[in-house]
Write a structure and sequence with these properties.
With about 280 residues, this protein is an alpha/beta fold. The protein contains ten helices and twelve strands. The protein has two domains: about 60-135, membrane protein fhac (Ubiquitin-like (UB roll), Roll); about 140-270, 3-Layer(aba) Sandwich (Rossmann fold). The termini are far apart.
Length: about 280
């Protein structure tokens, strides 16, 4: 019992000592240094200098990973059809500052899916220094012009890209509000044009009701109902009379019992002049 009593008395004596005597030596200095470092870091972050540092060199944990040999040195991208590699990397947010261990693949995937041209994508890490991206792009079907801007649209009319260069120059062109949602209808009219299909340059959806086709500088105004039948009439007229080779700028097919043409200014002036000339009297 005596040793136990001595231990209890020793413990009570230590508890009565001032707290600074009971703490390990140097703990106060370490605590003060830690507090100062924390305040300095807080000031560094609050001043905006930390954001500038990260923007220039990357996050501290990425810097450490790169120094350890885990920087992103290779990105393998498959499924590219219309995009460029630099566009994919920019959208993914991957560059020389990235590191494999601290790359958030879920975030990269979400960023890539935000690109309208990308339908699906997977992202995985290959240690020590590679990222693999497999993507599937939406297929561009046509160009859509509205308010002077040209967009690339899919078959369902969804805008998937902007017209930035000649990558999409060969696609069909539809013009006007709501024309994108009627793309299937427009492509059906091109098919109905038969031998004239290759001459169709664009289709304008007018007032949300009907189409006007542009053929080699000639406007073909189609009716709201059964526009394919009107195009069939035009094919017959072109074959029999070469209507589209004449000096006209528009053909109106909106009436089923007649075809109305609009002459070029030169042809209209010549016709008006001819009508002014008096007719020669016929001998009796």
């Amino acid at each position: 019992m005596e040793p136990l009593a001595r231990r209890l008395r020793a413990r009570l004596l230590r508890q009565r000592e001032p707290i600074e005597r009971r703490l390990p030596r140097g703990l106060g200095a370490v605590g003060l240094s830690t507090a100062c470092a924390g305040l300095a870091l807080a000031g560094f972050v609050a001043s905006g200098r930390y954001d500038g540092f990260v923007a220039e060199y990357g996050r501290p944990m990425d810097i450490a990973a790169r120094l350890a040999g885990f920087g992103v040195e290779r990105v393998t991208i498959s499924g590219i059809s219309r995009m460029y590699e630099r566009e994919v990397l920019s959208a993914a947010g991957i560059d020389w500052r990235s590191s494999v261990p601290f790359l958030d693949v879920a975030d990269v995937r979400a960023r890539l899916l935000a690109v309208p041209l990308i339908a699906s994508v997977s992202v995985r890490k290959v240690y020590p220094r590679e990222i693999v991206i497999n993507q599937v792009e939406r297929e561009p079907a046509a160009l859509w012009q509205r308010n002077g801007e040209v967009s690339v649209i899919a078959a369902d009319g969804t805008v998937i890209d902007t017209m930035r260069d000649d990558r999409y120059a060969s696609l069909p062109l539809v013009v006007g509000e709501g024309a994108n949602a009627r793309l299937g209808e427009y492509l059906g009219l091109i098919a109905a044009a038969g031998p004239l299909a290759d001459r169709v340059r664009a289709g304008t959806y007018v007032s949300g009701r009907r189409w006007t086709l542009k053929l080699d500088g000639v406007d073909i105004r189609l009716p709201e109902t059964d526009p394919a039948a009107a195009l069939a009439r035009l094919v017959v007229l072109e074959r029999k009379a070469g209507l589209l080779e004449k000096d006209i700028i528009a053909v109106d097919l909106r009436m089923t019992d007649r075809v109305v043409v609009r002459l070029t200014e030169e042809a209209a002036a010549a016709r008006a002049e001819a009508q002014k000339k008096p007719k020669k009297a016929t001998p009796s």
